[in-house]
Amino acid sequence: ETTSVAYQIAQLTVVSAVVVNNGQAVCLYSSTSDYAALGAWVNLAKIDFTKADAMQTLNGQQIAGVTPESIDATAQGYLQAKNCGAYANYGAVGASYPMIFDGKNSTGRFADEVLGIAWLQNALQVDIFNFLRSLKSRLPQTDEGMSALLGVVERTCQKAVTNGLLAPGIWLGNQIKTTAGDVVNQGDLLK
Q: In whole angstroms, what is the distance from residue 16 CA to residue 187 CA?
């Protein structure tokens, strides 16, 4: 039946999206609102990166002014396959809770991760620029000069630890500059 929620989701004909950071879209299924994804993005736009533990996830958040969907496991599977979320009722009948499911963007990455990394990239650029601008002469390419620059980067990364984007712990991800099981004491691998 072409009017079923599962059919609409499979066709992705009723969907809203907000495009952010290098064309990545936050997609959210809604049969009643063209602005559901924008409503979801508002939850992330409220993050004050200067505050402690400010990072949020879209998953489990509510959206003011948007009617939650009633979707089944099949429809949810279609959405997941297309990296599209939904604002729906979850939980037992009579005790359901309206919330955003998934919170991923079109690339399959979590939207809060994309926003957080964009903030960190910008904060690093601004902090390094301000440091270099404050120098009376050029930055010497010596151990002392590079240590001073590294100090700026470390302070910026510490802001990301404070706001919850980064955290100390054991690295379990792909090998970048480390191997699985390495300890990340400060939440970054600058040294």
A: 35
pTM: 0.78
Please compute, for residue 115, the number of CA atoms within 13 A of its CA located in the half-sphere on the CB side.
Answer: 27
Q: Which amino acid is at 117?
A: I
Q: Give the SS3 label for residue 99.
A: strand
Phi/psi of residue 25, each to 5°? -110, 140
Task: Kindly report, residue by residue over 34-87, the tens digit of the pLDDT.
Answer: 888 888 888 888 999 999 999 999 889 999 888 998 888 888 888 888 888 888
Q: Read off φ and ψ for residue 12, nearest 5 degrees.
A: 45, 50
Give how far the C-alpha of residue 171 lies from the chain's centroid of Cα atoms, to the nearest Å: 19
What is the tally of helices (H) and strands (E) in the chain?
5, 6
Query: Angle of helix 143-163 relative to helix 111-134, nearest 10 degrees?
Result: 140
